[in-house]
C-alpha cells in the first residue's frame, strides 16, 4: 500500500466480520522492512476535541 491519503482507507471495513475473515493479516511495508500483523481487535475512536470524554 502506498503512503497516500488512501493508506488507511480499508480499516473501517474491519467492522464487518466477513471482511475480517477474508483479510485477517495486514502487511506493513516501510523503507526498512516488510512486516505482517494479525488483526486481533478493531477500535473506532474520534480524534476531535468535541468528542473528548475526559480520559487522558
Automatic annotation (TrEMBL):
**Which InterPro entries did the record assign?**
Sortase_dom-sf
User: What organism, scientifically named, is this protein from?
Assistant: human gut metagenome
This protein is called what? Uncharacterized protein
Amino acid at each position: 500500500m502506498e503512503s497516500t491519503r488512501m493508506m488507511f482507507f480499508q480499516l473501517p471495513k474491519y467492522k464487518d466480520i466477513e471482511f475480517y475473515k477474508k483479510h485477517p493479516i495486514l502487511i506493513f511495508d516501510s523503507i526498512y522492512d516488510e512486516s505482517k500483523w494479525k488483526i486481533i481487535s478493531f477500535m473506532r475512536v474520534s480524534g476531535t476535541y468535541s468528542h473528548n470524554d475526559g480520559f487522558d
